[in-house]
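Example record

The entry below shows one chain as it appears in the dataset: sequence first, then structure tokens.
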Amino acid sequence: MLMTGFAGFLGLLKIVLMALAAFGLFDAAFRREDAFRAADKQTKVFWLVILAIALIVSYLFHFLSFLPIIGAIASIVYIVDVRPAVKQVSGGGGGGGRRGGSSSDGPYGPYNGGR
């Protein structure tokens, strides 16, 4: 009985790790290449390869081996560190609208009509 519950928990953990890696992979796939360089992070191709390997490893291997744990760490690093930096550089604020500022704001601050 106890082993069945533990196997169910590990199965759920495996699904969570696969979802984490898949989210990071799809997010990295839709980000611009130059945003990675501007944020002073590794290249887009590097993160795509790392996250794809993390997804494959988390699918193929049991969670208690070390490869899925390394993949989980790579996915967490992307989501916690790389994604916010790339998002900030590329201007991806989310929400679809402007956040603060006015319609007369330029790229370097408010436009004051040449005064």
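Notes for this example: Strands lie at 105-106, 109-110. The longest strand covers residues 105-106.
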